[in-house]
C-alpha cells in the first residue's frame, strides 16, 4: 500500500470516527424559548388515516408565535405541512367526507378571522366566509353542507370616525376580563352557514351567550351550552340546550343542575349526550371537579358515570362504536387516559404512568389519538393502540437534541398538621445525588391545578442554573380528591403555606437543599403564595413573585373575580375582618426580610399589576431589596417570546445574586 493512500485511509477513518462521536450536550438556556414548538387541537380524519393539528413556532423577526396546520398519517410515515403564512391559522377541521380541511385565518389583511377551505391533497386554500362578526367556534354538519358557528354580536359602540375610541359604557356586574378587557354587551350567538348559498341563518338571539355547538348525527339538531339565568354574571351556572338546525326553531333546555353543565358530545347513534357536570350545585364553582354525565336528548335524569371516582375528568369523547366514553383523568401528579363502558359503568385505564396526556380524539373502537408529554419531552402527538402509546410526531427532536435536562422524581412530604403532600423534585443534570444544593420552591398557580409528570420549561431552566427545584401540590390543588381541593376555602395563605414549608423541611432533612440557600417563586396564585410564605417564614433568602397580590381588600372591583369574592369571602363592607386577615402579607409587610423580585403584565385583568406594585412599594419603603418588572402590553400570561426569555433570565439572575456565593 503506497503512502498517500495510507494517509488518505487513516484520515478517512479519523473523520468517520469523529462523525460517529456524539456532540456534547449542553444545559437548557432561556434562549431555547425561541426553539420550542407546541402542538395543539388534534383532529382525526373521518377514515382514521390522518391526524391534523396546529404547530406553533416562534417568528423571531416579529417576536411572536405563529401557528400553521400540519397533518400526519396514522402509521406515522408521512408528515405534511398544509399552511405556511405569516398570518397563521387555527382550528383545523376535516370535512365529513374527509376531502377537505377547513381552518380559521385573518389572511390578506382581514380584520376578522374567516373560514378557509383547502383540498387535503394540496393546492391553495379558498376563503369560504366573509363575516363581519368575530367567529369564536365552528363545526361541520354531518352531511358537509352546512357549518354551525358561534359569532359575537357586532359592537357598534366604537363607531368613532377618528382613532380616538369612544368611552366604554359599562353596566354589567362582571365588567372586565383578562385578554377581553372591558366587557360591554356583545353576546355570542349560534348561527348556521349554508356552504353552497353562503346564507347565514340565526338560531339564537338575546342577551345570553351560546358556546360549544355540536351536531346530532342525523344533522337535524344542535346541542350547545348557555347560562340563561336572570343575571348570568352573578353565577357560574350553565346548562345544555338543544335546538333544531333551522331559523325560528324553539330552544329546549336539557339539564337543570344549578352548577355547570358543559362539553356536550353526541353519541354516534344520537340517543345520548355525554357532558361534564360540576360536583357543586350552586353559584360558586372554584373548588370543584367535573363529573362525567350522560343524558337523553329528550331530557330526564342524567347518569353520573364518574360520581364515585373523586377525581376531575375532562375532554370526553365517544368511541366510534358508541359503547364507551374516553376521558382524561387528573390523579396525583398524573393525567391518564381512561374509558367508561356504558353497559356497566366500569372505568378502565387505557394509558397512565409518569407522563401527562392533555388532549384526546377517537380513531376506532380501541384506538385514540392523544397529545402527551413527560418531564423530559415537550408535547408530541401519539397513537394509543390497545393502551400502547406510539409516537406519531417528532417535532421536539431538534429542540431536545443538544440539551441535557434535569431528572424529575416524585416525593411525599408531611406538613406540620400531618397532611401528606405530593410533590415533584427537579435535580440538575450531572450533579451527585448526595450534593447539597441551593433550592427553589417554584409554586403552581390556580390554585385548582396540579403539577404533574409533564415537561415544565421554567423548572427545567431553574434546575439548569444549578438549583434543586421543587413543585408542591399544596392543599387547594386538584388530583387528590374534592376535600383536598376545598381545604383552602376562604382560608388563603394558611394550609398552603404549611404544605410549602413541609416540603421545604423535607428537602433540608434529606440533605437535598442547603438550608442557608433557599428560594421561592411562582406566577398567579403561585405569586400570591410566594407573598404569603415570605410573610410567614424568613428562611427564604430570595423570592420571585409573578402576577400576585397581597392586599386582597384592594383587589375587589379591579380584577375579574367579584363573583368569587362575594360568594367565598362575603362583601368587603360586610366581612371586612376576613378580607383584612387574608391581606396579611401587605399589612404585615414589615415581617418580610426576603429580597423579592416582583413581575406583572401591564394589561393583566386577572391579577392586575397593582398587586405587585403594592408589594414592591412596601418593600422599597422598608428597605428590603426589591425590583419591579412590568411587561408592556401583556395580559396574565406572558406570550411574547422575548419577554418569556427575559423573565427566565431575570429569575436566574435574581436567585443567583442571593443564593449563590462567590465560591460556587
TrEMBL record:
SUPFAM superfamilies named in the record: alpha/beta-Hydrolases (SSF53474), DPP6 N-terminal domain-like (SSF82171)
UniProt key word Protease: yes
Location of the Peptidase S9 prolyl oligopeptidase catalytic domain: 454-661
Segments passing through the bilayer: none
Cleavable signal peptide: 1-19
UniProt entry tagged with the keyword Hydrolase: yes
Domain of life: Bacteria
InterPro entries in the cross-refs: 6-blade_b-propeller_TolB-like, AB_hydrolase_fold, Pept_S9_AS, Peptidase_S9_cat, WD40
Entry keyword set: Acetylation, Hydrolase, Protease, Serine protease, Signal
Described function: This enzyme catalyzes the hydrolysis of the N-terminal peptide bond of an N-acetylated peptide to generate an N-acetylated amino acid and a peptide with a free N-terminus. It preferentially cleaves off Ac-Ala, Ac-Met and Ac-Ser. Also, involved in the degradation of oxidized and glycated proteins.
Full protein name: Acyl-peptide hydrolase
Organism: Spirosoma soli
